[in-house]
Predict the structure of Pimeloyl-ACP methyl ester carboxylesterase.
Amino acid sequence: MKEEKYPWQGQVVNKSLKTRDGVNICYQTLGTDKKKPVVCIAHGLGARLYAWAPILNVILPRYRVITWHYRGLYQSETQESIRRFSILDHAEDLKSILDREKVNKVHIIGWSMGVQVALEFAHLFPERLEKLVLINGTYGHTLSTGLQPLFRIPYMADLLHIVIETLKSRKESASLIRKVATNKKITGAVGSLYSTLRGSPYFTEVLQQYADDVLGDSFNNYLRLFQELDAHSAYHNLPEIVHPALVVWGDLDPLIPAYLSRRIRRRLVNAYTLRFWLGTHFVHLEYPKRAPNRILRFLDSHIIEPDV
């Protein structure tokens, strides 16, 4: 990955901690100035820091950043029986990281899966939160609405569960997907085409890295997390979340329909909107200047300095 696109790479410090249930979680920090406020990044499912380059390039001069690998993915472990793999567990993992880093309050930027984690954290630990930025996400029951951008399709969730369980149980099916999706010629061509169409330089590298990551050793846990996202809902908690929240979406999102972001915005009591009429599921990459700069302005307004 080119240095000019990712100037913050040298700032990444990898750390780990053991959670309350004995799971080793890998997390990263960027920035060492304790006087700066902290932004926590809650990844989309399977993503890592490379998927946040436009936002990191903008916020790092003013903020410290903390992020982590969800339990069961990449360098983070999980229990052998996967008994604690829910969205609540991921939110509690973030709280443990903040305790370890002695960070009292944070802003959270969540994308896709990270929106559900951020909303769960806001419900469980409201005293630890300053602001929310919710990008291309939903409040829960992901498989019931995913891939249904216009209206809900009967039995779609059941079908997606069958697909997931088939991929988990039949290694030959997963192997075929892995062979196609990790082909550099295919991902390179798709990424280059999309980068050209959107006028954004990030998609080729992001797509190739994402395919390599999610189709590796964590693939079964990656699939299981889709089911955990479907089992979770923060819908009933939304009116109780009083923190300022910027809800960001693209109207052409085929994965998590835009109407779910609009529903989140209506139910939150202190919500602001950033809407991209031609955006899809990757608005922070599709609009690498407009989206990050608007997010920065939202975070900067009425900044409360952290306790030192």
Q: What stands out?
A: The first helix runs from residue 53 to 59.
